[in-house]
Amino acid sequence: MRTPGQIYVKYSGFLHTPTKGEALNAIRLIQEDAYNQAIDDVDNLIENHDEEVYIGVVNDILKLKK
Questions:
Q1: Which residues, 6+ apart, have CB-to-CB distance to 46 below 8 Å?
Q2: Low-confidence residues in the chain, pLDDT < 70
Q3: What is the pLDDT of residues 15-33, one digit of tens each?
Q4: How far apart are the first and last CA of the chain?
């Protein structure tokens, strides 16, 4: 999981008043990052064989796609 400092560094370029396109791009990047982090979390859970938890996480990821 990313630390607050890592998130700040990654998205600090969007701290000025964004145009609509810049705002939508920032939202897309944040959603993509969250999705990728969720996939990484599932991968780690699978490696640890914690099946009950990763099934719930997979279901949460699928909800994000809707």
A1: 54
A2: 1, 14-15, 17, 49-54, 65-66
A3: 676 787 887 888 888 888 8
A4: 23
CA dihedral 60, 61, 63, 64 (to 10 degrees): 130
Q: What are 33's two structure tokens?
A: 């990052």
CB 26, CB 11: distance < 8 Å: yes
What phi and psi, each to the nearest 5 degrees, are found at residue 56?
A: -65, -40
DSSP letter, residue 48: T
Query: Which structure tokens are listed for 3?
Result: 């630390």
The structural domain count of the chain equals: 1
Distance CA 43, CA 20 (A): 35
3-state secondary structure of 19: coil
**What's the rounded Cα separation, in Å, for the pair 54 and 6?**
25
